[in-house]
């Protein structure tokens, strides 16, 4: 599979900083967050510390799974020092396999417990929310309208194929709460109602924003791209059976076996800082700070999302449900 590599070189005067590392420091970072947002942040780290970074991005086709599979395949001879994942399930998989190195960052103290591991192998930051995107020219953006629409013909509803990404996380949560048999029955019923299963969340956003579909499931980052394009869309949070929202954080972890432990810790501290959460919040993706930040520097749209993120269901215990659900989904979509 194709993976893109980018190298970020430090500035000549960065080594004069009191916190700078030795010039021999060099990190390999596997990054699943979109390069248009993450590359600038990693470049900023290099400028501030003098630590060079080689970045390996994922692809839209493989999502973060390609990077997770690479870390697993390279376990005997790790190439990756730090894994910046844009979701959590793959990170849980790596932690379960013993492939992550525990590190308690001082900046992790500002992150709520439900967004970090109990054994310090990973920490979440900058979350996205699962939501309904609604074309306001086609239907009213209210919970009642959505509930009514879900009872009838769903040919005007679009959802992403749930084999990867945040849609898989949503399915895994349903599997955990409802049980496998109930999820299969629910899925068959939705399929009979005619919902459109498409390649990804961005496609869902495009179909709803253009009016081809009335509503669908997507993430906040895709939703705000439609908002910025001045499309007639509104959002409502998707809620679990227990009434909680689904807030999916970025996660950062040090890969077990790294030979750059000190530099890796510096990058983890950097990514978990309030400044980086604010940078993600002010990007086009509007990612939600999970820890405390200066509220005056947050966009108004993100302040609304903070309330929903605070209601997010804990995700750390999802791995078993994810594995069982994914086995079934592969039977549905890959055979």
Automatic annotation (TrEMBL):
<dbReference type="Pfam" id="PF13416">
    <property type="entry name" value="SBP_bac_8"/>
</dbReference>
<keyword id="KW-0732">Signal</keyword>
<protein>
    <submittedName>
        <fullName>Putative binding protein component of ABC iron transporter</fullName>
    </submittedName>
</protein>
<dbReference type="InterPro" id="IPR026045">
    <property type="entry name" value="Ferric-bd"/>
</dbReference>
<dbReference type="InterPro" id="IPR006059">
    <property type="entry name" value="SBP"/>
</dbReference>
């Amino acid at each position: 599979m194709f993976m893109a590599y980018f190298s970020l070189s430090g500035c000549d005067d960065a080594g004069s900083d009191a916190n700078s590392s030795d010039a021999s420091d060099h990190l390999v970072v596997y990054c699943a967050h979109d390069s248009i947002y993450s590359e600038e942040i990693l470049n900023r780290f290099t400028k501030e510390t003098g630590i060079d970074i080689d970045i390996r991005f994922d692809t839209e086709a493989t999502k973060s799974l390609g990077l997770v599979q690479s870390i697993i395949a390279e376990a005997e001879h790790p190439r990756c020092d730090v894994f910046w994942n844009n979701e959590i399930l793959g990170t849980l998989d790596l932690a379960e396999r013993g492939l992550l190195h525990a590190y308690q960052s001082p900046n992790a103290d500002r992150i709520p417990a439900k967004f970090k591991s109990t054994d310090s192998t990973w920490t979440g930051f900058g979350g996205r929310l699962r939501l309904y995107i609604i074309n306001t020219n086609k239907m009213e953006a209210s919970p009642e309208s959505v509930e009514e629409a879900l009872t009838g013909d769903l040919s005007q509803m679009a959802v992403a194929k749930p084999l990867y990404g945040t849609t898989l996380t949503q399915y895994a949560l349903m599997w955990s709460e409802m049980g496998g048999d109930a999820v299969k029955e629910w899925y068959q019923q939705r399929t009979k109602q005619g919902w459109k299963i498409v390649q990804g969340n961005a496609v869902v956003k495009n179909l709803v924003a253009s009016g081809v579909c009335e509503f669908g499931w997507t993430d906040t980052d895709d939703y705000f791209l439609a908002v910025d394009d001045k499309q007639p869309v509104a959002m409502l949070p998707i809620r679990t059976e227990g009434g909680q929202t689904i807030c999916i954080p970025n996660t950062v972890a040090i890969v077990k076996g790294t030979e750059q432990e000190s530099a890796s810790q510096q990058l983890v501290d950097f990514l978990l800082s309030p400044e980086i959460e604010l940078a993600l919040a002010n990007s086009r993706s509007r990612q939600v700070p999970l820890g405390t930040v200066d509220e005056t520097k947050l966009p108004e749209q993100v302040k609304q999302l903070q309330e929903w993120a605070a209601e997010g269901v804990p995700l750390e215990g999802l791995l078993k449900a994810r594995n069982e659900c994914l086995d079934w989904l592969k039977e549905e979509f890959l055979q």
